């Protein structure tokens, strides 16, 4: 087992009450300097939970020596070019910094000099609803929860005032038991150009804030975007010809072409169904016979990665999702069957492809107009 993976496994076992002190001590003594900061933090927490305070505090000292300080921030860089380890465990500097902060707070407490700079770094890295991937967001929330727990016990009364363009917008008091608040700024109060937001507080405790902008853009057409190319075609299942219009009750093969610029792991591909089409689940007896003729026929003995190009498929009322653990560079074709169930003109929202733990690997198709005619 990779030593980094082993370090985290020992931490998980210790947390679950199944720790192995001798094995954890042996790994710390033999391989500590070979581990990255994330794995060092895991070992430190494992040793702390198992009662070895001396070794856990020594690892915290090692972590302090590898921190990068920039202005009011502290972080622990994580090499993003470490091959399989990076792709399989979703390693990142953000996640590593969050885990190290949790280790420092647990082992050395809130007065450690790296606590505030590390918390500032994590708070500054928030982007919209989270911190990048779901993995990074989870570790960051855990670390900041530990951090806020220490603030809850020490904060006094902190009065705040918020002004927008020189006009009072909100005021209030933050105190123990009520250490955060949400303030909404109506669009009607914003000027067409530069706006100035002033935050003032009377307390001595640092006041952290996060400014989020959310808006919806109305567009008649959606263009393809992203560094992963994905296109969608509606085909006749027998001839393979492209269908421009459909007839009520007709079977349709949907073909998704995905062009990956590089290999990727944990890939999610979702195709949104227009209102007039219903995806068929060939694994059900109610639809299996209708699709026997076509290549998408469900065969439990063939339902393998080698045969279909994906690890798992999920069919819902509004979409079909494909999950791929490892996806090669270049072109991958995915298909599934639908039936035209309602006549009319419908819009199919773009198909999307994304790496679950690498938000920079993403793409979408354009939207499609689907016309379903009544049977003559």
Strand content: 25-35%
Low-confidence stretches: 285-293
Helix-strand string: HHHHEEHHHHEEEEEEEEEHHEEEEEEE
The major beta sheet can be summarized as: 6 strands, antiparallel
Overall SS class: alpha+beta
Number of strands: 18
**End-to-end CA span:** 65 Å
Order of strands, main sheet, comes to: 6-17-16-10-13-12
Helical proportion? 25-40%
CATH architecture classification of the largest domain? Alpha/alpha barrel
**SS field, number of helical segments:** 10
Number of domains: 3
Radius of gyration: 27 Å
- As for the CATH topology of the largest domain, it is Glycosyltransferase
Please tell me what the overall shape is.
Answer: flat
What number is the mean pLDDT?
88
CATH class category name of the largest domain? Mainly Alpha
Report on the architecture of this protein.
With 376 residues, the protein is α+β, with helices and mostly antiparallel strands. The chain has 3 domains: 3-153, Glycosyltransferase; 156-201; 225-373, Immunoglobulin-like (Sandwich). The chain is 30% helix and 28% strand. It is built from 10 helices and 18 strands. The strands form 5 sheets. The protein has a 6-stranded antiparallel sheet, with no helix packed on it. The longest helix has 21 residues, at 134-154. It starts with a helix and ends with a strand. Residues 285-293 have low confidence and may be disordered.
What's the gist of this structure?
30% of the residues lie in helices and 28% in strands.
Attribute tags:
single chain; 376 residues; alpha+beta; Glycosyltransferase; Immunoglobulin-like; six-stranded antiparallel sheet; four-stranded antiparallel sheet; 10 helices
